[in-house]
Amino acid sequence: MVKLINLSTYSHDIQMFNYDQNKIINFLQKNGMDGIELLNPIMWDENIIPRRLVKGVHLRYYPAWFDFWKGNREALLKQFKTMDDVEKYYGGINRESIIEYYKKEIRAADKIGAEYVVFHVSHVQLEHIYNYKFTYSDLEIIDAAVELINEIFKGLNTNVKLLFENLWWPGLTMLNKDMAYRMLGKVNYSNKGFMLDTGHLMNTNYYIENETQAVEYILNTTNNLGELKSFIKGIHLNCSLSGAYVMEEINKNNNIESMFNSRKTYGNAYSHVLNIDQHKPFRDKSVSKIIEFIKPEYVVYEFITSSLAQLEQYIKIQDEALGTEDRGQRTEDR
C-alpha cells in the first residue's frame, strides 16, 4: 500500500514549503509518506516537486459541465449570464476545449511518470449545492461522462491507470452497484478502476452522527458493491460529518430559488462546499477496518489545511487512528 498526501502546483500550496523541494522531501520523510497525488500537473515544475514523488495526478473537475457538453445554450446562459463567461470558464465554446484540456493533463501526468489519474464523475449547478434540487439523474451524468472520457482517451498514447472518483452530487456516488458497473463497463479504456473518497461517501448520508457510524456506512456500502470492490484501487481517506449542516441548509434554501443572487452565491459557494466536504482526519480507530476490507493500492490523506503545522497535525491524528504513527522515514531511500 502506497501512502500519499494531496498537493497542488498552485501557489497557496507550494508556498507553504517556500517553493523548496528539500522542504517537501523532508516533510514527506518526517511524516512517513511515500509521495504525492498532484493537482494541476500542467504547471508542474520538477525543480519544486521531484517527479519521483508524484504517484498520482488528480485531473481537473468542472462542477457544472453537463449542459456545456450537451450544447444547452439556454441552460448555460441561466448559469453564466453571457457566452463570454462560458468561454472563460471552459476555455472555449465547444466540447473540444475540455477534451483537449484533459488530454493535456494526462500527457502531463505521463511526462511526470504518475501511476494513476483521478477523474470526478459528477455534475451540479450552483443553486443546487444549496437546495439539492438536482436537474439531472445519476444515469444521465454517468452516460455523459462516459462520452467525454471516451473522447479524451481516443487516440491518446497512454496506459496510465484511470480511477473514477465518487461524489455526493448526481453521477457516480457508489450507492448504486448498477451505475458503478455501467461506468466501468462503458468506458473504452482497459486500465481503469475507482478512487473511493470516504468523505464524499459520508456526504451521501445526512444522518451519520459520528465516525463509528461513518465507518460502518462505508463498509456496508462497499460490501454492497460485491465483486466491484476489487476495482477500488485507491482511497481518498478523509472525514466529513456534515449531515446536520446539509439538512439545515436544504431547509433554509428550499423555496428561494428565485431569490438567488449570483454574486452572493458564487462568493459563498467555496466556503459552503467546505462546510459540507470537510476533508478532516479520522480519529476513531475503527477506520482501520476500511483499509483492511478494501486493501487499496493507494491511500491518500486528502486534507484541506491552511498551514504545514495543521497538515502535520492532521496526518498525525489519522496515523494514530490507523495505528501507523510510528512508520516514519518512508521516502528517504526512494
Descriptive report:
The chain has an 8-stranded parallel β-barrel. The protein has helices at residues 11-14, 21-30, 66-70, 73-80, 83-90, 96-112, 128-131, 138-153, 177-186, 198-202, 211-223, 243-253, 262-276, 288-294, 308-322; strands at 2-8, 35-39, 54-58, 116-120, 161-165, 192-197, 232-237, 298-301. It is an alpha/beta fold and 334 residues long. Helix content is 44%, strand content 13%. It has a single domain (69-297, 310-322), classed as TIM Barrel. It has 15 helices and 8 strands.
Task: Describe the SSE topology.
Blueprint (H helix, E strand, L loop, with lengths): L1 E7 L2 H4 L6 H10 L4 E5 L14 E5 L7 H5 L2 H8 L2 H8 L5 H17 L3 E5 L7 H4 L6 H16 L7 E5 L11 H10 L5 E6 H5 L8 H13 L8 E6 L5 H11 L8 H15 L11 H7 L3 E4 L6 H15 L12
Distance between the termini: 15 Å
Order of helices and strands: EHHEEHHHHEHHEHEHHEHHHEH
How are the strands of the biggest sheet laid out side by side? 1-2-3-4-5-6-7-8
Number of strands: 8
The helix fraction, in percent, is 40-55%
Strand content: 5-15%
| Number of H/I helices | 15
What is the averaged pLDDT score? 94
The CATH topology is given as TIM Barrel
Task: State the secondary-structure class.
Answer: alpha/beta
Q: Gyration radius, to the nearest Å? A: 20 Å
The CATH first-level class comes to Alpha Beta
Q: Indicate the low-confidence ranges by residue numbers.
A: none
In CATH terms, what is the architecture?
A: Alpha-Beta Barrel
Instruction: Give a quick account of the main beta sheet: strands, pairing sense, barrel closure.
Output: 8 strands, parallel, barrel
Total tally of structural domains = 1
Overall shape: it is globular
